[in-house]
Write a structure and sequence with these properties.
Number of domains: 1
Order of helices and strands: HHHHHH
Structural class: mainly alpha
Number of strands: 0
Number of helices: 6
Distance between the termini: 26 Å
Helix content: 55-70%
Length: 92
Amino acid sequence: MLYKAAAEGRSELARILLDNGRIDLRDPSHLGIKSLSIALWQYQEETAIMIADKYRKEGLKIEKGLKALLMAARFGLPDLVESLMKAGTFHS
């Protein structure tokens, strides 16, 4: 559901899912990093930041997130770069 919200550019739905939808980013079925990447490709910076912040709040590292970090830098999205760095983005 999070992936679909990101893919359709529905940032408000993504916010609701992240805040109240019991999204566990450790569960691969929620497609956390793929949702972040698709939001980035759709120029949905707000949604991508929400996902990165959710990782940080849950104390999780964003594995295989180097590509998203590089894309955010390339697209000139400093707020997203900052959120990804705070969330501990690294390549594994």
